Amino acid sequence: MARLWLLLSALTGFTGVALGAFAAHGLKSRLGPEHLAVFQTGSHYQLLHALALFGVALLALQAPGRLVNLAGGCFALGILLFSGSLYLLTLSGIAGLGIITPFGGLAFLAGWLCLGLAAWRLT
Protein backbone atom coordinates (compact mmCIF):
# COMPACT_ATOMS: atom_id res chain seq x y z
CA MET A 1 0.00 0.00 0.00
CA ALA A 2 2.93 2.34 0.56
CA ARG A 3 3.43 2.53 -3.21
CA LEU A 4 -0.21 3.54 -3.73
CA TRP A 5 0.01 6.31 -1.14
CA LEU A 6 3.28 7.56 -2.60
CA LEU A 7 1.83 7.62 -6.11
CA LEU A 8 -1.29 9.43 -4.90
CA SER A 9 0.92 11.90 -3.05
CA ALA A 10 2.88 12.62 -6.22
CA LEU A 11 -0.26 12.90 -8.35
CA THR A 12 -2.12 15.19 -5.97
CA GLY A 13 1.00 17.27 -5.35
CA PHE A 14 1.60 17.68 -9.08
CA THR A 15 -2.01 18.57 -9.85
CA GLY A 16 -2.21 20.86 -6.81
CA VAL A 17 0.73 22.92 -8.04
CA ALA A 18 -0.64 22.93 -11.60
CA LEU A 19 -4.10 24.03 -10.45
CA GLY A 20 -2.63 26.70 -8.18
CA ALA A 21 -0.62 28.09 -11.09
CA PHE A 22 -3.70 27.87 -13.32
CA ALA A 23 -5.66 29.91 -10.78
CA ALA A 24 -2.92 32.50 -10.36
CA HIS A 25 -2.32 32.98 -14.06
CA GLY A 26 -5.22 31.60 -16.09
CA LEU A 27 -8.19 32.40 -13.88
CA LYS A 28 -7.04 35.73 -12.46
CA SER A 29 -8.79 37.69 -15.20
CA ARG A 30 -11.85 35.41 -15.39
CA LEU A 31 -12.87 35.04 -11.77
CA GLY A 32 -13.64 37.63 -9.15
CA PRO A 33 -11.43 37.81 -6.06
CA GLU A 34 -13.91 35.81 -3.95
CA HIS A 35 -14.11 32.90 -6.40
CA LEU A 36 -10.36 33.00 -6.97
CA ALA A 37 -9.82 32.73 -3.21
CA VAL A 38 -12.16 29.71 -3.07
CA PHE A 39 -10.23 28.00 -5.87
CA GLN A 40 -6.92 28.75 -4.13
CA THR A 41 -8.31 27.30 -0.87
CA GLY A 42 -8.96 24.06 -2.75
CA SER A 43 -5.41 24.06 -4.07
CA HIS A 44 -3.97 24.85 -0.64
CA TYR A 45 -5.77 21.98 1.06
CA GLN A 46 -4.90 19.64 -1.79
CA LEU A 47 -1.20 20.42 -1.41
CA LEU A 48 -1.28 20.04 2.38
CA HIS A 49 -2.91 16.66 2.10
CA ALA A 50 -0.57 15.57 -0.69
CA LEU A 51 2.14 15.95 1.96
CA ALA A 52 -0.03 14.04 4.42
CA LEU A 53 -0.28 11.21 1.88
CA PHE A 54 3.49 11.25 1.63
CA GLY A 55 3.67 10.82 5.39
CA VAL A 56 1.18 7.96 5.20
CA ALA A 57 3.36 6.29 2.56
CA LEU A 58 6.42 6.54 4.80
CA LEU A 59 4.50 5.27 7.80
CA ALA A 60 3.08 2.39 5.75
CA LEU A 61 6.66 1.29 5.04
CA GLN A 62 7.65 1.36 8.72
CA ALA A 63 4.43 0.37 10.48
CA PRO A 64 1.83 -0.90 8.02
CA GLY A 65 -1.65 -1.36 9.35
CA ARG A 66 -5.35 -0.83 8.88
CA LEU A 67 -5.38 2.64 10.50
CA VAL A 68 -2.52 3.86 8.33
CA ASN A 69 -4.31 2.74 5.19
CA LEU A 70 -7.60 4.18 6.42
CA ALA A 71 -5.86 7.52 7.00
CA GLY A 72 -4.55 7.48 3.42
CA GLY A 73 -7.99 6.64 2.06
CA CYS A 74 -9.59 9.43 4.06
CA PHE A 75 -7.00 11.95 2.88
CA ALA A 76 -7.52 10.92 -0.75
CA LEU A 77 -11.30 11.09 -0.38
CA GLY A 78 -11.00 14.47 1.32
CA ILE A 79 -8.95 15.85 -1.56
CA LEU A 80 -11.52 14.61 -4.04
CA LEU A 81 -14.55 15.90 -2.16
CA PHE A 82 -13.20 19.09 -0.55
CA SER A 83 -10.82 20.42 -3.17
CA GLY A 84 -12.71 18.91 -6.09
CA SER A 85 -16.00 20.50 -5.04
CA LEU A 86 -14.33 23.89 -4.62
CA TYR A 87 -12.77 23.64 -8.08
CA LEU A 88 -16.07 22.65 -9.67
CA LEU A 89 -17.98 25.28 -7.72
CA THR A 90 -15.78 28.11 -8.94
CA LEU A 91 -15.47 26.91 -12.53
CA SER A 92 -19.10 25.92 -13.07
CA GLY A 93 -20.86 28.48 -10.89
CA ILE A 94 -23.19 25.77 -9.55
CA ALA A 95 -23.63 26.86 -5.94
CA GLY A 96 -25.20 23.52 -4.97
CA LEU A 97 -21.80 21.85 -5.21
CA GLY A 98 -20.85 23.62 -2.00
CA ILE A 99 -22.86 21.04 -0.05
CA ILE A 100 -20.20 18.44 -0.88
CA THR A 101 -17.30 20.44 0.59
CA PRO A 102 -18.00 19.72 4.29
CA PHE A 103 -17.94 15.98 3.62
CA GLY A 104 -14.41 16.41 2.29
CA GLY A 105 -13.52 18.32 5.44
CA LEU A 106 -14.90 15.47 7.54
CA ALA A 107 -12.81 13.01 5.53
CA PHE A 108 -9.71 15.10 6.25
CA LEU A 109 -10.54 15.10 9.97
CA ALA A 110 -11.11 11.34 9.93
CA GLY A 111 -7.75 10.87 8.20
CA TRP A 112 -5.93 12.89 10.83
CA LEU A 113 -7.73 10.98 13.59
CA CYS A 114 -6.73 7.63 12.06
CA LEU A 115 -3.15 8.83 11.68
CA GLY A 116 -3.09 9.93 15.30
CA LEU A 117 -4.50 6.60 16.48
CA ALA A 118 -1.94 4.75 14.38
CA ALA A 119 0.82 6.83 15.97
CA TRP A 120 -0.57 6.17 19.45
CA ARG A 121 -0.40 2.41 18.80
CA LEU A 122 3.24 2.49 17.73
CA THR A 123 5.55 0.70 20.10
TrEMBL record:
Give a Pfam family name. Answer: DUF423
Q: What organism is listed for this UniProt entry?
A: Pseudomonas borbori
Principal localization? Answer: membrane
Family stated for the protein in its record: Belongs to the UPF0382 family.
Tell me where in or outside the cell this protein is found. Membrane
The lineage's top-level taxon is: Bacteria
Name the InterPro entries on file: DUF423
- Mind naming one GO cellular-component term on file for this protein? plasma membrane
Q: What is this protein called?
A: Uncharacterized membrane protein YgdD, TMEM256/DUF423 family
Membrane-spanning segments? 44-61, 68-88, 94-120
- Membrane topology type, per the record? Multi-pass membrane protein
Keywords for this entry?
Membrane, Transmembrane, Transmembrane helix
Q: Say yes or no: keyword NAD present.
A: no
The UniProt record lists the keyword Transmembrane helix: yes
